Amino acid sequence: MGKLIDKLKEFGKYAAERDRQNKEKKEKEKEANRIAKCKKCGCESLSMHKKGYGMIKGLTGGILTLGNPVGLVAGCIGKNKMKVYCMNCGYSWKV
What we know:
Blueprint: H1 2-34, E1 46-50, H2 55-64, H3 69-72, E2 82-86, E3 92-94
């Protein structure tokens, strides 16, 4: 009876260690999936840029509205858009 209890304790330790290792493995996989990668080549070297005021759009809007300040606001269209660039292959996409 004592040997059976010892075997069960040993199995319990083994199972606990295996569960701990599986949990660590899943956490590492989860962390690896959170890293941003290029959609085209899979590279992790990325650069993100926020688009600012479009001077050409603003000037064009100002000219088309004959100097009306409302036309200058056209340069603000899309100014908060984010774009990601891959440093490896040059692929870019909007976020």
